[in-house]
Amino acid sequence: TVAAGPLFNFILSILVFGAIIMSQGKVAEPLAVGELKPLPVEGITLQPGDELVRIEGLVMPEWDRQEDNGFSDFVDALPQQALLDYEVRRNGELVSAKGPHPMPPLVVQLSPKSAAFDIDMKQGDVIVAIEGEPIAAFNELKDVVEGSNGRPLDLKVWREGEILDFVLSPRRVDEPSDEGGFETNWRIGIAGGLAFDLATERKGPFAALGDGVTQTWAVITSSLDGLYHMITGAISSCNMSGPIGIAEVSGAMASQGIDSFIWFIAVLSTAVGLLNLFPIPVLDGGHLMFYAYEAVSGRPPSDRFLRVLMTAGLVLVLSVMLFALFNDIFCP
Description:
The protein has helices spanning 4-24, 70-76, 115-118, 138-146, 205-231, 243-255, 258-276, 284-297, 303-330, and strands at residues 26-27, 33-36, 51-55, 58-59, 83-90, 93-100, 109-110, 126-130, 133-134, 153-159, 162-168, 171-176, 182-187, 190-191, 196-198, 200-201. It is an alpha+beta fold. The strands form 6 sheets. It has a 4-stranded antiparallel β-sheet with strand order 4-3-5-6, with no helix packed on it. The protein starts with a helix and ends with a helix.
């Protein structure tokens, strides 16, 4: 009964992650253009339904090779130009077409409480110049931001046919590294994406639920890893948020669409389930610890012992809550 609460937190997360993944489908092979996104690039002849064969003479890799960086290596090898030469299969025939750089400086998603979010950048914005220099690929933006050391940057942004000027200062962000642990980078808080949606096909419920389990486990492991590194001082304790921070992030995710908000709810459900399993008196994990003691010793802990531990646990939980609230108010 005690374990049921955290267990159903995890089950809810798995079901929500799985439902979203199933609704989005999986990328169909061979890769084909689903829908082109609005971009400030003239001369595009690429069309929805075109099967991608080559870009600038380079053979398109399989989408499933993302895990071994196959697709990212392919993108890195392309010229950083706004318009590229494509070879596509259209109506069964190989034809040449002009298309945008597959990874333009396009804002696909904004991180809550980030520099870009705070200056009111929007999904769909395209950064056409940074520090007065035109850019055509997301990697160009990334390189300038990472090398800025936090100094203010001038951006020119295309939004629905208009050019807007923004100034923002990248912020230090602690991110999981591929080798484990965390690394600190300068970020403005935008996630890029493809210049076009890829054609998708239906994903079965069992495969989607399997992906839901994988995503839930990823949230658990990254949360534990982040907590450990905060305790050891390897990353800033400002990574811990309280009720104000959670409310701000919830609002920010809701402003980016219902899918983003529901995804965040699933992440939050996993975090709540994980927190409740910590072996701290007054939490479910603390009660499970007492039951484990009783199972081993054959008798429950004494009432006095329980009172002392419950008081200590309550003080610890309240202290963590106050610390998180302090972060919400005073952390940048």
